Amino acid sequence: MRIPKNISIIFPGSRCDCGQPIPFFLNIPIVSWILLGGKARCCGRRLELQYIFCEILVAVLFLLLWRKSDPWEFLVYGIFFGLLIVASGIDFATMTIPDRCTVGGAILGILGGVLLSHFSRGNYIFCGGIASIRGMLLGSSILLWIAVFAELVLNKEAVGFGDVKLMGCIGAFLGTKGAIFSIFGGTCLGMVTLFPVWWIYNRRKSKIKFGSSLPFGPFLALGAMSYLLFFKAIADEYCAQIEILLS
After folding, report:
1. How many CA atoms lie within 13 A of 203 on its CB side?
2. Are 237 and 204 found together in one domain?
3. Who's near 166: CB < 8 A, 6+ residues apart?
């Protein structure tokens, strides 16, 4: 991956693992993989299935987002989805999330809130900015306190600070309700996903055990995208009912 190695994502162009440059007409998502039969043309190396899987997943996510959004929302949340996908891929590979995806993403989220307030939601500009800042602060602070208490209980780092900053980015784009859903929804999705994986690998006498370090950022990202694509109306209504009961 280029970003963790501080290499430009533009120059030099894409290269195969054997070092040969990849022509632009052989670097078309999904199409090139199918035409090449899953193998590199230059050296015959088999291309891993994860590449076409990720490309199909990205295409499906953006299609769903397009169907649920107006043009301004698609612009802002398309950038958001791109940040989440990049952050998730890097977290899976390196167990770290770069600041340009989290801190930079939080800044873009605040600007996106201002943009949507003006062009899409019909509110005053500062309303969107304030909502984004509140979401950023609430999302990151909740996860930070969870990390502190988990570390006290487990006597080891349970949640990385990169995840806390990622929650700040998510909160900036989705506001307070989206941030809350992303934390708890992402945790539930992680448990549902990881327990079967843990059981299968342990049946095969693999080394995955309770207490192993696993990336949490992808599940936070999955919770955020699930909120925006499927659960926003339900989650917002539920939070509104709680606010009424507490007021």
Report:
1. 6
2. yes
3. 87, 97, 101, 102, 105, 217, 220, 221
Residue 27 pLDDT: 80
Domain boundary among 47, 66, 84: 47
- Structure tokens belonging to residue 119: 């062009």
Give the model confidence (pLDDT) of 147-182 as tens digits: 888 888 878 777 888 999 999 999 999 999 999 999
207 and 240, same domain (yes or no): yes
Per the CB < 8 A criterion, the answer to whether 162 and 96 are in contact is: yes
Using omega within 30 degrees of 0 as the cis cutoff, is the peptide bond preceding 12 cis?
yes
In angstroms, the CA 209 to CA 11 distance is: 41
Q: Are 159 and 139 in contact (CB under 8 A)?
A: no
Tell me which residue range forms the domain holding 31.
1-47
Give the pLDDT confidence of 10-51 residue by residue, as tens digits.
677 777 777 778 887 778 888 888 888 888 877 878 877 777
Question: How many whole angstroms separate alpha carbon 211 and alpha carbon 155?
Answer: 11
In this structure, the answer to whether residues 105 and 16 fall within a common structural domain is no
Q: Measured between alpha carbons, how far is 14 from 7 in angstroms, rounded to an integer?
A: 12
60 and 42 in a single domain? The answer is no
CA atoms lying within 13 Å on the CB side of residue 149: 6
Q: Is the pLDDT of residue 62 over 90?
A: yes
Helix (H) and strand (E) counts for the chain? 8, 0
